[in-house]
Amino acid sequence: MNSSLSKILLAVLLFMPLVLSAQNKKGTVEITGDTQVGDLVKKHIEFNEKMQTVPGFRIQIASLSGPNSRNQAFDLKRRFKEEYPDVEVYVFFTDPNFRIKVGDFTSKLDAFVYMKLIKDRYPGMIVEDNVYPIHLDWSDLIPETDEDAGN
């Protein structure tokens, strides 16, 4: 056998037990950082575990942007609520749009039936899939006035 090949083979045989034993050892990993991040992650996980949601549908009756769009959105909300007091109205802000959505429908068919009832007053509506909490959390809605915001 070639002497260099035998040296390599000998080195492999000598070091193989060390490599195999190193692979069987277990260790721990310690991540250091701001403890507040970990606390926030725990709170987020707890919130998601407690949150019960229901799939549903809402009808978007308008999407407004530009100057004075916030006031226009809340005026539309008020007018809709005056016309249809039995239906919930929501204003959501997703930069740069204020979206006005109505209803808490559990089926798409129910949403389309209702949309047909109001189509003459609110053309250009769309039905959107929605997942909302069983007990709605109003904190994600835009307050209409400073009083509504608790200020």
Please summarize what this structure is.
With 151 residues, this protein is α+β, with helices and mostly antiparallel strands.
Describe this structure in words.
There is one protein chain. This protein starts with a helix and ends in an 18-residue tail after the last strand. The chain has helices spanning 3-24, 35-50, 69-83, 108-118, and strands spanning 53-64, 89-94, 97-105, 126-133. It has a 4-stranded antiparallel β-sheet. Helices cover 42% and strands 23% of the residues. It is built from 4 helices and 4 strands. It has a domain at 53-140: Sporulation related repeat (Alpha-Beta Plaits, 2-Layer Sandwich). The chain is α+β, with helices and mostly antiparallel strands and 151 residues long.
Record the SSE blueprint.
Layout: H1 3-24, H2 35-50, E1 53-64, H3 69-83, E2 89-94, E3 97-105, H4 108-118, E4 126-133
Antiparallel strand pairs: 1-3, 1-4, 2-3
* Multimerization state: single chain
| Overall body shape | elongated
CATH uppermost class of the domain at 53-140: Alpha Beta
Named CATH topology of the domain at 53-140: Alpha-Beta Plaits
Give the strand order, joined by hyphens, for the main sheet.
2-3-1-4
Distance between the termini: 89 Å
Number of helices: 4
Largest sheet: 4 strands, antiparallel
Poorly predicted ranges (pLDDT <50, ≥5 residues)? none
Mean pLDDT: 78
CATH architecture annotation name of the domain at 53-140: 2-Layer Sandwich
Order of helices and strands: HHEHEEHE
Task: State the CATH superfamily name of the domain at 53-140.
Answer: Sporulation related repeat
The percentage of residues in β strands lies in 15-25%
